[in-house]
Structure formats: structure tokens, C-alpha cells
């Protein structure tokens, strides 16, 4: 039982289950002061307190916690056993939650991460299955993307060279569930057998009713299908029409195995050249590789490659060798759009010269209202060719100015355009600087710009107030 005493002579003790008691009368009486860990339950298991440390005059109390945690691993050896071809952990972080142990439960269900079975396909990809209590177990193209509670079964497929997960999913309900065996059919479907204690275990085409008290289950998971593109859109307005060198959003399903999504890392920008592939996901537009900034299962953001073509072009996604059917996008000489603050229609704008962000402060925290006479920079993409040209896929150098200045209105009133150019050290990011006239309307008003006969999204707003 961990004990500690502070400088005032107060005693602290941690008992089984993590509850901490305090005594201020030399251990004659004790009072419970709480626990730094979830409570244990009947026949339960949880985190224990290994040590307690009182610190400072303010009565702060620190606890060192102890938890036994297991990790799965998969190792592939050469045929003669002399060489490790790959070896990897397969795990999530331990859960601090308490849970019930039933005598009828397989002991594997008590572990934090556990591999119960393995199966190989003809290409030597390894599919493993087991149990995890983690909320951050790695998933890829999952049938169930999150832990539904306590222990869940999992299935995961590791590429033959050990370089990546091509498939990984949770499977379970609100109580303890685990996969105890795994197999593959001729079509590559994953077949799991296990035990569930969840009354809400996910069933389909159910042969018997589930009561959530230790039933066996058999589940067949179809392999992920090829990527499917449902829309190719301007990356700022999310409307049709793209320009070479502009930002593009691709929507669909099975676009990537990575979950949650991610952007490129700085180490993936090599020699100033932006990546054309992330986690095995690549995109071509008009047959040319695009520069991949963000990937997820349902959306990819790319910078369109440099191209002189105009009109309909094919867009294709390659997800680790699985290729989508081509989708058609309209490649235009300009496709202007303003970026907006997340979850709002307010165009991202900066007040000069202090670059204070501009929007309605009641909607977008830490922003300020613009005033008549202010000089603002609006941030967007697709505002057309520049002089000198700026090739896609590399950071902009210098100050490439647009060949044709856009026309801008705020609240229906034309405003003076001071300049429009690509932003140095960025990619595909235009800055359009304007001065608001004294006659500009106040409140949430529309801001629009046109370039090469194409107008920005009509929904974009600026927030204007009188000084």
C-alpha cells in the first residue's frame, strides 16, 4: 500500500482500487479524498496507484499509476528462419477504464491488445485478428472506425513487405468482444470467429438472437472495394471547376486507407518538391501527377499540376494499387474562390497593416470587424495565370502577379483592387488586396470576385461595422 507524508505531517495512503485516503491526526482517523483512476468493479480490473507524491504548499497530490499492458506483434521470417523479413508491433494505447471479468470469458479478452489468429493470402499479405481495449488502435479502410466500448475484436491486414496496413477495423459493441480465430475465403473476405458479451454487437443476416452473455459469433468482412470518386471540386468553394495549379478537393469512398486523415509532413517535402503520394495514395489530373496535401477515406486535397489543357479532363485516384474509374473535371483558365473560416461562410481576410483576421467576432473567435476605408487582403485560389508563371508542386518565390486583375465587390459595391498575386513560400494561395470604400454596407455582406469571366462562390461573406 503506497504511503506518503507532506511537510505538514499529513499522511496519504492509496488502497486497492486506487482510492486515496488522508489522515491529519497521525493515522488515528482517515478520510477518503478521491481516486486518480476509474473505480474498479466487482471482479474487475483496472489501473492501480504505484506511488503518491505530495508537492507544494497548495496541497497538490501526484500519483504514479501502474497498468499491465500487452502489445500484439507480427514477425515474418525467411523460409530457413535465419532472417527477419519484417517485425512490427500492432497495438493501441492502454485504456484506463475499469471492466468486469466473467469466469466464462477467454483470458485473452482481459488483455489490452492481443492477437489470436493469423491467415495468409496467396500474395503473402498477413491478416491477423484479436482483441483490443484501445481507443486509438490503427485502422485502415475500416468497417467500424472506433472502439464501441471496453474490448472490441479487430482484424488487420499487413502488406507482404510489412510496410503498411492495407485494412484494419474494429468489430464490437458496448461490452467485451474478441476475435479468437481468423480465415480468408477465395475472394479475400476476412472471416472472424469469436465471443461477444455485447447485447448491441453488430449483426447482419443473423441466424440466432443475441443476448450479450458470452455468445459465439461468426462475421464475414468483405475486402475494401476500389476507390470511387463522387465529385471533383474547387478546394476553396467546393464547387465544380478547377484551374491548373489551384487547390482541388476530391470526394468519394475508399480514397485512402489512412484513418483518421492526415496532411503531408515536412519531411515528405523533399528538395522543395511537394509529394505526389501519401501512404500509397496518388492522384492524376489529365494524366499528370497532382501534389497530394491531405488524404482520408472520403476526401483528398491536392494541388492540380501545371497544364495548358482546357475543358474536361480525367481525374483518377490510386489507393495502394487499387485504381478508381476516371471522374471528369472541368479545367478552366481561372477558377477563383475564397477560402472560408471552417464551418462558416466568412471569407478568410486580413486587415492591413497588422494582419488582424477579419470576420464577425461572435461567429469566429479572435477576429475583428472590418471598417469602411480599411485595406484588406482576401485569401483564395484559382485566380488565373501569373507573371512570371509559378509551376505547381513547389513553393512560390518572388511575387508573381496575376496577368489580369480580378474585379471585386463587397455588399454589391465595387471596391478598389490594389493588387493580386501568389503568396511567397506557399503553393496555389492567392492574396487579393482591396480597399473598402466609405459607402460599403455594414453587417454580414457578400464578397465576390471575378476572373476570366468566372465568379467566386456567392456565399462568401465579410463582416463590416462602422468605427
Architecture overview:
It is a single chain. By secondary structure, the protein is mostly beta strands. It has four domains: 3-66, no CATH class; 72-221, no CATH class; 243-330, Immunoglobulin-like (Sandwich), CATH 2.60.40; 337-464, Sandwich (Immunoglobulin-like), CATH 2.60.40. The protein is built from no helices and 43 strands. Strands 32, 33, 34, 35, 38, 39, 40, 41, 42 and 43 form a ten-stranded antiparallel β-sheet that branches. Strands 20, 24, 25, 26, 29, 30 and 31 form a seven-stranded mixed β-sheet that branches. 37% of the residues are buried. The model is unreliable at 40-45 (pLDDT under 50).
Task: Report a brief summary of the structure.
The protein is mainly beta and 467 residues long. 0% of the residues lie in helices and 45% in strands.
Q: Could you outline the blueprint of secondary structure elements for this entry?
A:
Blueprint: E1 3-5, E2 11-14, E3 20-23, E4 31-34, E5 44-45, E6 48-55, E7 60-66, E8 72-77, E9 84-90, E10 99-100, E11 113-120, E12 126-132, E13 139-140, E14 152-158, E15 165-171, E16 177-184, E17 190-196, E18 215-221, E19 228-234, E20 242-243, E21 247-253, E22 258-259, E23 262-263, E24 277-278, E25 281-285, E26 288-289, E27 291-295, E28 299-303, E29 311-319, E30 322-323, E31 327-332, E32 337-338, E33 349-352, E34 356-358, E35 375-381, E36 386-387, E37 401-402, E38 407-410, E39 413-422, E40 430-435, E41 443-451, E42 454-455, E43 461-464
Parallel strand pairs: 20-31
Antiparallel strand pairs: 1-2, 2-3, 3-4, 5-10, 6-7, 8-9, 11-12, 12-14, 13-22, 14-15, 16-17, 17-18, 19-21, 21-28, 23-27, 24-25, 25-26, 25-29, 27-28, 29-30, 29-31, 32-35, 33-34, 33-35, 35-40, 36-37, 38-39, 38-41, 39-40, 41-42, 41-43
Amino acid at each position: 500500500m503506497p504511503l506518503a507524508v507532506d511537510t505538514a505531517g499529513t499522511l496519504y495512503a492509496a488502497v486497492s482500487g486506487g482510492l486515496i485516503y488522508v489522515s491529519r491526526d497521525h493515522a488515528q482517523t482517515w478520510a477518503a479524498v478521491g481516486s486518480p483512476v476509474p473505480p474498479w468493479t466487482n471482479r474487475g480490473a483496472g489501473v492501480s496507484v504505484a506511488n503518491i507524491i505530495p508537492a507544494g504548499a497548495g496541497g497538490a497530490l501526484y500519483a504514479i499509476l501502474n497498468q499491465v499492458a500487452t502489445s500484439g506483434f507480427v514477425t515474418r521470417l525467411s523460409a530457413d528462419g535465419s532472417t527477419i523479413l519484417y517485425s512490427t508491433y500492432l497495438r493501441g494505447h492502454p485504456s484506463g477504464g475499469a471492466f468486469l471479468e466473467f469466469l466464462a470469458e477467454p483470458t485473452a479478452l482481459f488483455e489490452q491488445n492481443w492477437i489470436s489468429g493469423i491467415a495468409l493470402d496467396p500474395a503473402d499479405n498477413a491478416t491477423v485478428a484479436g482483441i483490443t481495449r484501445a481507443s486509438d488502435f490503427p485502422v485502415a479502410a475500416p468497417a467500424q472506425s472506433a472502439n464501441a466500448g471496453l474490448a472490441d475484436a479487430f482484424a488487420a491486414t499487413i502488406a507482404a513487405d510489412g510496410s503498411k496496413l492495407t485494412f484494419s477495423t474494429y468489430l464490437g459493441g458496448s461490452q467485451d468482444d474478441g476475435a479468437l480465430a481468423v480465415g480468408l475465403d477465395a475472394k479475400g473476405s476476412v472471416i472472424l470467429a469469436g465471443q461477444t458479451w455485447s447485447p448491441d454487437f453488430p449483426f447482419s443476416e443473423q441466424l440466432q438472437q443475441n443476448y450479450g452473455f458470452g455468445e459465439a459469433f461468426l462475421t464475414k468482412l468483405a475486402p475494401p472495394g476500389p476507390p470511387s470518386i463522387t465529385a471533383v471540386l474547387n478546394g476553396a468553394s467546393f464547387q465544380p471547376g478547377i484551374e491548373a495549379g489551384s487547390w482541388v478537393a476530391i470526394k468519394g469512398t475508399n480514397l485512402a486507407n489512412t484513418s483518421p486523415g492526415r496532411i503531408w509532413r515536412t519531411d515528405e517535402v523533399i528538395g522543395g518538391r511537394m509529394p505526389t503520394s501519401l501512404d500509397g495514395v496518388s492522384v492524376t489530373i489529365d494524366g499528370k501527377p497532382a501534389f497530394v496535401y491531405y488524404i482520408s477515406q472520403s476526401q483528398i486535397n491536392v494541388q492540380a499540376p501545371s497544364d495548358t489543357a482546357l475543358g474536361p479532363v480525367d481525374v483518377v485516384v490510386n489507393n495502394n494499387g487499387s485504381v478508381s474509374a476516371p471522374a471528369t473535371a472541368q479545367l478552366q483558365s481561372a477558377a477563383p474562390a475564397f477560402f472560408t473560416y471552417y464551418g462558416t461562410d466568412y471569407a478568410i481576410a486580413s486587415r492591413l497593416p497588422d494582419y488582424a483576421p477579419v470576420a464577425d467576432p461572435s461567429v469566429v473567435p479572435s477576429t475583428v470587424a472590418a471598417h469602411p476605408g480599411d485595406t484588406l487582403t482576401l485569401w483564395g485560389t484559382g485566380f488565373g495565370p501569373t507573371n512570371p508563371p509559378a509551376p505547381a508542386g513547389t513553393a512560390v518565390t518572388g511575387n508573381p502577379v496575376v496577368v489580369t486583375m480580378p474585379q471585386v465587390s463587397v455588399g454589391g459595391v465595387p471596391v478598389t483592387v490594389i493588387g493580386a498575386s501568389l503568396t511567397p513560400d506557399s503553393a496555389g494561395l492567392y492574396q487579393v488586396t482591396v480597399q473598402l470604400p466609405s459607402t460599403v454596407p455594414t453587417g454580414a455582406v457578400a464578397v465576390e470576385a471575378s476572373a476570366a469571366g468566372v465568379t467566386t462562390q456567392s456565399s462568401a461573406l465579410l463582416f463590416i461595422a462602422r468605427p
